Amino acid sequence: MSLCVTGFPGTNRTLTTLAQLSGLVRHLSLADERPSSRQARFAMAYLDAIRPRTVILGGWSDHYEPFLQRARRGGPRWVVYWTSSAGQTDIGGEIEKYVRVVADRRIAAVLYADAKLVRSPAAQLKPSALLPVCALPVVPPSAQPTRRSGPTVISLFCSPREMIRKNPLNALLALAGLDHEYVLHLNGLSRHAPYRRLLRRLGIPYRDFGWMARDAYERALADVDLGLQVSFAESHNQVTADHLLRGIPVVVSEMVPVLATAAPPLRAALVVANPDDHLALRATIGRLLARPHMRRRVGAALQRQFLIDNAAHIRIATRLLRRLA
After folding, report:
1. Domain boundaries in the chain?
2. Which of 139, 156, 181, 321 might form a disulfide with 24, Cβ 3.0–4.6 angstroms?
3. For domain 2-131, is the CATH number 2.40.128?
């Protein structure tokens, strides 16, 4: 069984996908984080009813403490799925949570999404294993939507709580003054007054959908030609994965590992070495806007590689989940 608060959208999505792909996990998402909430009481009763061997907690939230207080000999083994990299843990202010997880004797093991962190000295402080992020391949390569005419659509999507780590200021500075016609699609950035004022002052054409439900988000992806995810730190980057599943190329920083296995020419076209260099980022975006046919070929090639990598991740995750079960 797995549990995750919906305040961690990436981790919750990952655990939901693992349950769908493997058939080995029953996942519960907890939108109400109050320990005495009806959802929490239901989850505890459900836990008692199915009596799982292992319970996977998504990240760490104080909401999980009442569940861990029920830990007892002969009960389920409690493990935590840590989806942040070391850099994410620092930038996101999660270091206190991470140290607490590692030190808590009730937590039997930590599962890591980041392959580098699972090989770190900190991962030796408690039993650990790699549980890679997997994607549900819902859009086959032959079913890509046909883009309508109009300006090139560039996306800059991220969770509101991760905005600082996603480097939006450099992205906006890079987009300002581009010679090519485009429109920037956002999912809430302009709701923050400083970014809204900057978008207007820089003359960046944009459309902000706000935070979207999953079906609305997938419809929005169907209109995107190019994504931006020039992050300062990542263990995976779910938004990049969502784009690549649909054959949409994404300009990323060197910190985004989803493109690590891409062929060198593809990486050269999309990867910016220094995420704090908006001039290099602008040059990369400009080349892709100027060559739409090349951009689509790059997206199709990345899609094929991503599906190969994702199949390997599913095999690794399934083997681990079988051991835990």
Report:
1. 2-131, 141-309
2. 321
3. no
Residue type, 175: L
DSSP secondary structure of 244-278: HHTT--EEEETT-GGGTTS-HHHHHHHEES-TT-H
- Residues constituting the chain: 325
pLDDT beyond 70 at 141: no
CATH architecture of the domain with residue range 141-309: 3-Layer(aba) Sandwich (3.40)
CA distance 43 to 38: 9
d(CA 295, CA 291): 6
Residue 280: other Cβ atoms inside 10 A: 16
Q: Is the pLDDT of residue 28 over 50?
A: yes
Per-residue pLDDT tens digits for 213-235: 989 999 999 999 999 999 999 99
Cα–Cα distances (Å) from 119 to 107, 113, 320, in that order, read 19, 11, 16
List beta partners, residue 130.
Answer: 112
Q: How confident is the model at residue 157 (pLDDT cuts 50, 70, 90)?
A: very high
Q: Where are the alpha helices (DSSP H) in the chain?
A: 9-22, 38-50, 65-68, 86-91, 95-103, 115-118, 168-175, 193-201, 214-221, 238-245, 264-270, 278-290, 292-324
Name the DSSP class of 210: -
Are the CB atoms for 317 and 132 separated by under 8 Å? yes
What are the tens digits of pLDDT across the range 272-316?
Answer: 999 999 999 999 999 999 999 999 999 999 999 999 999 999 999
Q: Which residues pair with 81 in a beta bridge?
A: 58, 111
Q: What Cα–Cα distance (Å) separates residue 219 from each residue in 78, 209, 215, 289?
A: 37, 11, 6, 22
Residues 285 and 172: beta-carbon distance below 8 Å: no
Buried b / exposed e over 200-229, threshold 16 CB at 10 Å, is eeeebebebeeeeeeeeeeebbebbbbbbb
State the pLDDT at residue 147. 56
